[in-house]
Amino acid sequence: MLRVKRISAVLDLIAFGVTAVLFLASAVFRWMGEPYVETAFYLMLFGVIALDAGAFLHSAFHIYRDVHFLLFIFAYNLLLIGRIYFNAMYFPHKMLLALEADSWDNLYTAFFVVALALLFFVVVYYAAEPVFAKYEKRIREGHAQKTKEKQALPVIRQLSIFMLYASSIPYLYTMALKVLAVLENGYTASFTDTVQIPGVISRLSTFFVPSFAVFLATLPTVKEMKLPLLVYCVYMLASLLTGRRNMLVTEALMLLVYFTMRDFRRDKGKRYLTKKTVALCGIGGILAAYLLQMMAYKRAGNFILTRPIGDVLMSFVDSQGASFRVVIQTVNNLSSFNQNITWMYLLYPFELFVHNNLVFRNLFGLQPIVEVQNESFAKTTHNFAHVLTYKVDPQRYEGGGGFGTSFVAEAYVAGGIAAVILMAVLAGLLFRFMSSILAHNWVVVAFGLLAFRELIYLPRTFAFTWVTDTFSITNIVYFAGLYVAALLVVQISAKVRKRTRAPAAGTLPAGKSPSNEIIGG
């Protein structure tokens, strides 16, 4: 054990030391002026690679604790830096054109913002270890729950299973309508045309995903998990037919993190996560990336089965790295934004939540926000994805295309480098908390699983969607209702058992028979 710690310390010193040297050298070359900006850019690129290597080498010794952290590092590199890696390897002579940068100065600034956010995320995640060490230790030791909660947990599990099955029908129905819309009108049109879904069905379908999260949060056995997991996998695979790949990916990553953390609670000799399992998961991940990219070709009408697998995988890296476009176009067009309202781009999910919630809408007399891709909406909304795409390419925007958004770009346009650092710090703390999530009660675990589906996608989504989607009024009321219903069932069943339980022999008063006591009670 001591030798492992020494090896880890040496690797940390080398990897993070190289990172610091390269970042400092990059800053020096940038300070030297325009002729050296390109050199500064590539030094920072190698600095990011060294930072990634340091994070992966350090967390390899804590894989159970840091699996979600490593997945985010991978997702961040793929979604925000993947296109830089691709073009640095294949088209370095066309770097500005390929990355849509107006100048090397803009390209360096955009990459600096991305690299700085990653650096602070890694530093805060590791630095926060003492804060959460107590909870992380409790994962292996188990955690004591209140007596009522222990008694209610099996009931909550059964109620969540019932709700999962009941809501799966309307949920799959709504998904079928979306699939038909994509098949009839095409993938791009699905962003401009809305699907009309009956209100009752829409309401019932909202319980499907949280029901599964609650079920997992009760830590069921393998036997109890088989059928609910099968139902959920049907939904995951069906989501591909809508043309959106991120739903399947985020759900799969959530399950991967959950089962890895569950495995950590087992004794070392009984764990399922072995070197062979990790290798198989790696092969499965490569195959999944290949299939997802082939799906993208099919969606774009450019499907060729005979494409070399290497070319397909590199195209996958390039296409997924398109989120860097959001950051570079933000830098290119920074002067065109109204600085008086840019802070509202960062908080747009809260604005959307308040306007579209029935209670708040009626209370404050607000109008619901219906997101459609047209000029009128783009000029009035605070949705950064819509605003940026319209500013850069109005024709593409009105045709249903879009750049998407990123928490890094939203933070930068809202508050500059300071806001980027604050968002990276928040993300680091959130992911560190996730390391100890199984040490908490089922409510925290369920909310954590729902939040992780959004957090892992932060490089390509709104900064605070994870808050509004996770802690929605529907989820809060639903979880509270499950808990209250479970407590009622426990109390009723306890009274029934008390009344029907036969008294022990020799405990009855003289002159009374057991039958009389039961009848008279």
Automatic annotation (TrEMBL):
Keywords: Membrane, Transmembrane, Transmembrane helix. This is O-antigen polysaccharide polymerase Wzy family protein. The keyword Membrane applies. Pfam families: O-ag_pol_Wzy. The chain crosses the membrane at residues 9-33, 39-57, 69-86, 106-128, 159-180, 200-219, 277-297, 411-431, 438-456, 476-494.
